[in-house]
Amino acid sequence: MKIIDVVIGANYGDEGKGMTVNHLAYTTTLVVRFNGGAQAGHTVIHNGVRHVFHNFGSATMKGAATFLGPKFAIDPVSFFNEANELSGKINHKLVVIADPRCIVVTPYDIILNQLSEIKRGSNRHGSCGMGFGEAVRRNNDPLFSFTIEDMRNEYHLTAVMDKLNPYFWKRFEEIVKDDSLRSEAQRMIDDMKDRFINDLYDFVKLIPICEFDGIEKNYNHIIFEGAQGLRLDQNSPDFPHVTYSNTGLDNVLELLNKDRHELAVWYVTRPYLTRHGAGPLNNECPYDIIDETNKPNDYQGNLRFAPLDLGEFKTFVNKDYLKSDGFISTKHLSITCCDQVNNPNIEHIANSILANKVITCWSADGHWNLIEFPAESCI
Amino acid sequence: MGNASWSSTAYSAKKMSYTGKSREQIFQKKSIRKDFDPCNITIRESCDSEENPLSTALIFALDVTGSMGFIAEEIARDGLGTLVEGILERQPVTDPHLMMMAIGDINYDNHPLQITQFEADIRISDQLEELYLEGGGGGNHYESYDLAWAFAASKTEIDCFNKRGKKGYIFTIGDEMPPTSARNEVLKNRVNIDLQSNMETNQILDLAKEKYDVFHIVVEEGSYCIRGGSNRVYDAWTDLLGKRVIMLDNHRNLPQVAISVIMVNEGIEPSEAISVWDDVLVKKSVERALFGPGGQ
Fold first, then answer.
1. Which residues of A touch B6 (CB under 8 A)?
2. Of the candidates A40, A94, A294, which has its C-beta nearest B26's C-beta?
3. Whole-model pTM above 0.80?
4. How many whole angstroms separate alpha carbon A238 and alpha carbon A250?
5. The CA-based dihedral angle spanning residues A114, A119, A120, A124, taken in that order and rounded to the nearest 10 degrees
């Protein structure tokens, strides 16, 4: 049996999934991005070098390879921008393998996303304006879906902007409903199109394409890295302030086999609750915590804080963990940002979900402690 | 979540400000060079010449599979380059002719074997850049190190042995257990090597030993060694190769370790081979390599 580590955010994102992944990884690990897309932003400080991971596994600075899973949405422009940034921080080459089923985020999706967030004004969804939700929605329509598999076909590559154009204007009518934004939309399309096509070509040229089954046997250690958090799952009660993806175990289990794989699921949280963007947050309170990653952006509002409600925490975690029924699995906890509050209540948090192992992070650049609970406490 | 900022200006920029590297240089190479593919190779020759009247064939075969991770890349890009320079500079054998191989897994990899030319000078370094690192391998815990022996035995002609009866060298380098041999049918189809009949690993090794001194270097930082225990790997290799199993605790010291091993094999006292290195940590690495992890 091969043990697969799975790292899942327990809340609204910003839990510290990236630093957890980097901590658990070896130089030879394969990190699987199994949901979301470039809107994820996982901050890691490795040997003093800081990077916010969007399109790559968070252990890349350690040397780990990245697999972009079938539910990952790839924005090739964002991908190459990040690759370029990363190449200045590491000495090895990037190893990335992509599943043919990854959906592709096009300029259309980004433009629709941004225009609709502007239109929504104060009723924002909390979206980052990077087109992920629009791309997922578009790909539900077989006439207008566009995946990495389609990218292999050169005909599609050059013609894709024309092919998807009718969809864009139909959707524009639906959600923007504002003729004054038409010329702005057209200008944005013209601006982004060439770079997009160029980067599609480079992606096909440089990135090996392979399904998970074909690549997983080649790696002795695999980590599944979740984006967002359990409370942002598309089926979370917080709808519509959610993301169009499964943020828990669902996508992970689809790729694994209970006869060959054993799960070690790491739920990640801070000792307190954070949320950025719009949407409900119970007992919201001010907190003087410095957080460099989550600078407010034009489309997203600020990072907000609240105490961690252990009852809710337990409910979300256990509901997700139950999905692994049938697999051999263990449940673990990673608590980050322990240094940012006085006396973080580690034991209470761990007991609330009956965690097996607990790792705690005490500094942004990765000072970790491991606590293993006696077996009887984790029935 | 939590992407800081995004704007369409970043997206529409036609030219990116590269950190001095092209996209091709940032990502691992995606396909194999045709002339490195054993399917396109009939024979590789190391011949004496006016400049190299006493040529000696040296083959370094590196495991480039996923379990080696970026260590494979560092060795391929930097380590082997330094090794080449070191051998050319120190000349532990006369007129070295160097060949590099990249080894994967014959059962899983698309390209389980890649082979450069024999080169007498620094040109070999350029070919290292061209090796394709598949990142495959693993799974069965064996890499096809025996492909290096099979190729050397059946598809190299080396003047050092043919004309002067002096054996060449083969070093395989990796983190996993000794290989189990593939059926001859598979060898023929996948890597264009025909041994005439199905052979066991030790039989293939014996074929190679006719023309070469064969060593194996265990990269202890590879994930198989870390997770599987390097003693297990060492013991298994020792069963096959005896004292010609070299433990490498730091891949950056590969050049010094390999050169020292050759020096000792050529009759230089181990203590002298260790003393030529200035760096204390290098000395330690070399000592561990020459005397084994138990220091015997």
1. 128-130, 297, 299
2. A94
3. no
4. 18
5. 20
How far apart are the C-alpha atoms of B260 and A16, rounded to whole Å?
A: 46
- Separation of alpha carbons A256 and B202, rounded Å: 37
* pLDDT given for residue A373 in this prediction: 66
- pLDDT, tens digit (0-9, with 9 covering 90-100), for A224-254: 999 989 988 887 777 777 777 889 999 999 9
Cross-chain CB nearest to A94 (options B12, B28, B226): B28
* DSSP H helices in A45-122: 76-87, 107-120
Separation in Å, CA of A161 to nearest CA in chain B:
15
DSSP one-letter code for A9: E
Straight-line distance from the first to the last Cα atom of chain A, in angstroms, rounded to the nearest whole number? 22
Average pLDDT, chain B: 84
CB contacts of A53 in chain B (<8 Å) are none
**Closest by Cα among A255, A361, A275, A366 to A32:** A255
* Interface predicted TM-score (ipTM): 0.72
Encoding tokens for residue A379? 């029935």
Q: Quick one: average pLDDT of B160-183?
A: 93
d(CA A296, CA A128): 10
Three-state DSSP class for residue B100: strand
Number of C-beta neighbours around residue A42 at 10 A: 31
* Residues recorded for chain A: 379
- Spatial separation of the C-alpha atoms in residues A178 and A198, rounded to whole Å: 31
Tokens representing A35 are 């949901």
CB–CB of B86/B112 below 8 Å?
Answer: no
Cβ atoms of A126 and A228 closer than 8 Å: no
pLDDT band, residue B107 (cuts 50/70/90): confident
Residue of B1, B12, B17 for testing the chain A interface, max A β-carbons within 10 Å: B1
Between CA B251 and CA A71 the distance in angstroms is 37
